Give the backbone structure.
Amino acid sequence: MYDQLRSFVDSFDFEALMVFFTTITVNDLIVNPYVLVPVIIIIGLISYNKTAYIGQQLLLYVPAVAYLFITVIILKNDNITATGPFLMAMVAFFLVAGWFIWTKLLGD
């Protein structure tokens, strides 16, 4: 498992991301265990009153952290001056800056 993760981190770039999104179907994405299991766990957490807050927080943070993780890997392996990686980096920057402004400056 560690070797698979290491090869993914070392070789994944923006073209591999585009190939992934052009070749995968919606049904393949939905039944993928890496997508299906977290969705079922989050729905289960949201359905109970005692764990609804945790489920809502996971619903917000899991996609954001996954996007940041993929963006960091793509920026590590690709040229940032290309259009795709540059736009991903800009969105990631505004995601982090917006989260910081919302939680630290506007919160409480």
Q: What stands out?
A: Residues 52-77 form the longest helix (26 residues). The chain has a mean pLDDT of 89. The two ends are 42 Å apart (CA to CA). The chain is about 80% helix and 0% strand.
